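Continuing the series of single-chain predictions for the mutant panel. This is the parent chain; the variants come on the following pages.
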Amino acid sequence: MSSPDIVVIGAGMGGATIAHALAPSGAEILILDKGHQLPDRPENRDARAIFQRGFFRPQESWYDSAGKPFNPGNYYYNGGNSKFYGAVLMRYRAEDFDGLAHADGDTPRWPFRYGELAPWYDRAEALYQVRGETGTDPTEPAHGGDYPFAPVPDERPIAEVRERLRRIGLKPFPLPLGVDIERWLSHGRTPWDAFPDARTGKMDAETCALLPALTHANVHLRNGVEVRRLIAEPGGGRIEAVEYVEGGETRRVAPKLVVLAAGAVRSAAILLASGGVANRSDMVGRHFMNHNLSAMIGIDPRFHNDSIYQKTFGLNDFYLGDGKGGPPLGNVQLLGRVSGAILKSDLRRVPEFLLEAMSRKAIDFLIMSEDLPDPASRVRLDGERIVLEWRRSNMTAHEGLKRVMRAALRQAGFPLVLTHLFDRRTPSHQCGTIRIGSDPAAAPLDPFGRAFDHPNLFVADASTLVTSAAVNPSLTVAALALRAAGHIRETELRA
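Parent structure:
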């Protein structure tokens, strides 16, 4: 297919969702994905293989600002990073679209308010079959209705922790999750957070969007394809070709419309390799954001944690403020059950049986704070090397959130509290490198994700996010992709 109507680059949350939404239009759609389908194999449920041996981590290196290589931990399978995600499908709060004042700086306003995206959030929750409960999160924005399914139930020890936190005045709420728990557990009694899913119960981009899209005769997928650059027509204007490598050969395809959705880092790298495509503003690759994340483990010798999956509730008590009239701190949510085999990946000198005994007395949380957009925090290229110059920000909020949660856990009966800050090897919700906006001098894309400089180029992944907020970005990426697809159907595919 040398001249399809639409080429979608990438089959992650953004690419698969937009392909799904455009498939019924009848347009000839070609999806080019760097990965392949994840096979159903024993390592998918083997914590030692995943965490200790890094079985699924790609053999690639990016580079930091000092030229030091590191393994970034992104995954190249159909469905992208959603194959390994914690399946938390949470909306940005309404206030996130208005700009927030943080201890270390302010976030900008989005080019539209929450109400513009709300109906697309409703559709994204339906597509990804979200399990949840409205009315329990004090920061929850308006919904068009209830969640499609009831929440994933707490296991006995998790219900106990939830009650302990309620008794000290906090407001734990059911995490909105994309996982069919009965189906997941029928294939192996493990957590799903960071465990890959070979179509066994997790509602990821492949399961919910890509595979249904491929049932349409007009949608085609090529795997093992690495897109190198986009080629604009002479003098700029429209994108006339996509250049990619397949089977060691360099090839081109000439679509009428291009949707770039290779991920926040790789999408930026593709544009940077394309000789100024969509970069009149000099903002491509800039404003890279990566949530500030820490694991927090509360230990109580009297507590017995025999849960399997654990990850069922969150806390937003400190999302919009510190509880004392101060600035926002962030979101807290349970991690997937952290076993001794998982702890061993960071504590290699400690016998695994001791770590397992400790884990049975522990509860595990993810502490998440917003990373603020900074033009100096960026993706750039050094020849063909991807250089990631990430500048952490807003650590005052992150340390504040750890402080209040440490105190809360101790008050709730967990006297020993340990924390671990995640580094750049963890793909912590990367976003912001090709952001949307209203001013072409300040953003590469218009509010629908269309390049200001190229009318037939859209971007539909986490790179378009104006702010990182302090919640998992997957649902917002899906909602934006559905909104962009609606715009494409109205403006480009109308008969």
